[in-house]
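Hi all, long-time lurker, first post. I run a small reading group and we've been trying to get comfortable going from sequence to structure in the token notation. Rather than ask abstract questions, I figured I'd post a concrete chain and ask someone more experienced to write out its structure so we can walk through it together at our next meeting. Sequence below, copied exactly:
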Amino acid sequence: MNCTLLKTKFFSLLLLTVSMLLNSCSKTVTLNRMVPAEISVPTYVQRLLLVDRTAPQREGIAILEGILSGEAPFEVKNAAEATLTTVQQELNTSPRYEVIRARERLRGGLFAQTFPAPLMWEQIDGLCSEYGVDAVLVLEKFSSDFVITDKKKMIKKTVGTGKDAKEIEVQGIYLEGLAAVSAGFRLYDPQTRNIFDQANYDKTNLWSAEAETRTQAVALLIDKVRATQYVGRMAGASYAHRIAPMHVTINRTMYDKPKSNPALAKGSRLAQVGQWEEALDSWHQGLNQINDRKTGGRLCHNIALAYEVLNDLEDARIWAGRAFTDYGFKKGRSYAQEISVIMRQEEIVREQLARDTN
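-- Answer (accepted) --
Happy to help. Here is the structure in token form:
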């Protein structure tokens, strides 16, 4: 992939919105950029197969384990399904892979706390041949739990209606529901006959509800099926970010005051309607009209922001640095450092998105 195409691709991934803040002298610019995956999967892996290996080894034992844990096998299956579906959905938001979902569900690690023995390479080869893929990502093990605790608590209650309505405190019940999921993934690379990655994600989330009686509170609390699916999706999203570059949101500050420098405010108005090059010209002109260091720092900061939006990160870094070095604008130093990090990240993303030519 040539540099021009990459640059165009990255620029197309940069989404921009502008929203007003309560702060009277600034506004927020929200940028959407791509950050690297936690690990760099070999570039020859372009087509990726997702496999669910959480079918129980023995149905009877799975039912017994479910009774002991309070989780029915179908509930855990649904949570595992939500986990793998989220992996697929998240990976589909990245240009890194073409993702295929296997039709079969293999026997493996339902309710398991440790990874099962790896799949045989003959089996991996068979899957790669059947689906025409370069590597296989397997949800190898999955367990979930949902625990409810309760305690008595004074709660507020509205009595009466209309003008006679008032709020009183009564004895009630406060519930907390804690959902936990443990999901283990393996990424099989048949070309090197190597398990390229093995990672486990333990995720939890807490919900609460309160009412006069426990029955009422339970009715208000999330049910365990939805709770474990929710936490399973958290695990799935985390793993997807591990192996593929993903979009993140960055918030930037844009200054439009003081009024003593009209070019500062004019540039801000131009930026709000997407005319960033015109805004850049206005802020450059404003530097010839400054009468204090604070305004100079803000103008340099805005110029850096415009260059970042226009995807000229080198000039963005330079002007953010000038806000600090020329005008003592402290935020300019941290902004320049952030731009340097983004520049390094984009290099890694380019490498991770490169296509293998062999």
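A couple of things your group might point at:
Residues 79 and 226 are 8 Å apart (CA to CA).
The longest helix spans residues 330-353.
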